[in-house]
From TrEMBL:
This is Glutathione peroxidase. It comes from the Eukaryota. It comes from Leptomonas pyrrhocoris. One of its GO terms (biological process) is response to oxidative stress. The keyword Oxidoreductase applies. GO terms for molecular function: peroxidase activity.
């Protein structure tokens, strides 16, 4: 008997163990980010956190992309139907309105029976408030170190400086002047 995807996810040791797809529904190889930190968001276009979340993600990406850092944005429609758009529409929206040049991924569920195994791993590696393993809202972010381990969870509305404080020590040249 084969183990369920969520049971397999619980046994995984890093994000590199998971299969994800990009906005065009093509496989996206997470191992291309080995050796570099990244930030994984669940995003939505019609949320009160949309402007701030995309602005924070874009600012961080633009500031640190030359050091190998990236952001992966996973559209999700599980919170009040705030992401009804297709992946192509999300990508157009994010790139046009917020100049988001980081990868926009395939739309997924982050909670429930159909949650993506990557999110099962992230949520259990970095639990939320009071040990919760659910994502409470859009623009929850997970910071991943260069070995692919989730090392911090940020609540929606986390500011650039707050994330940056946890991100900077993850670079090989953490002591270098910025």
């Amino acid at each position: 008997m084969r183990a369920s995807p969520l049971l397999r996810a619980a046994a995984m040791s890093s994000i590199y163990d998971f299969q994800v797809n990009d906005a065009e529904h093509k496989p996206y190889d997470l191992t291309q980010h080995k050796g570099h930190p990244l930030l994984i968001y669940n995003v939505a276009s019609k949320c009160g956190y949309t402007k701030g979340g995309y602005e924070t993600a874009t600012a961080l990406y633009n500031k640190y992309k030359d050091r190998g850092f990236t952001v992966l944005a996973f559209p999700c429609n599980q919170f009040n139907g705030q992401e009804p758009s297709t992946e192509a529409e999300v990508k157009e929206f994010a790139c046009t309105r917020f100049k988001a040049d980081f990868p926009i991924m395939e739309k997924i569920d982050v909670n429930g029976d159909k949650e993506h195994p990557l999110y099962h791993y992230l949520k259990h590696a970095q639990k939320g408030l009071l040990g919760s393993t659910s994502v409470k809202w859009n623009f929850t972010a997970f910071l991943v170190d260069k070995e692919g381990h989730a090392v911090h969870r940020f609540s929606p509305g986390a500011k650039t400086e707050e994330i940056e404080k946890k991100l900077l020590p993850l670079f090989d040249d953490a002591g270098a002047k910025l």
